[in-house]
Amino acid sequence: MENTFHIQIKLKAMPEAIFHALTDSTALAGWFAEFAAVSLNEKSYDFWGRFTPETPTQDTGHHPILEFEPAKHLKFKWNLAKTDTIAHMQIEKRDQQTLVIVKHDAELQNTDFSRYSVEDFWFLSLENLRRHLDGKAPVRCDFSGPMKGDIRHTVEVDGSAQAVFDTLIKPEQLQRWIASNASVEQVVGGRYEIGWEHGGPTKILELVPNQKLSTLWPGEQDTVVTWTLEESGGKTRLTIVHSGFAPDQDTGGLQVGWLNFTSWVKSLVEYGEDWQPATVKIPEGFKWLYPASIYAAQNEI
Question: With a threshold of 0.85, does the pTM exceed it?
Answer without folding.
Answer: yes
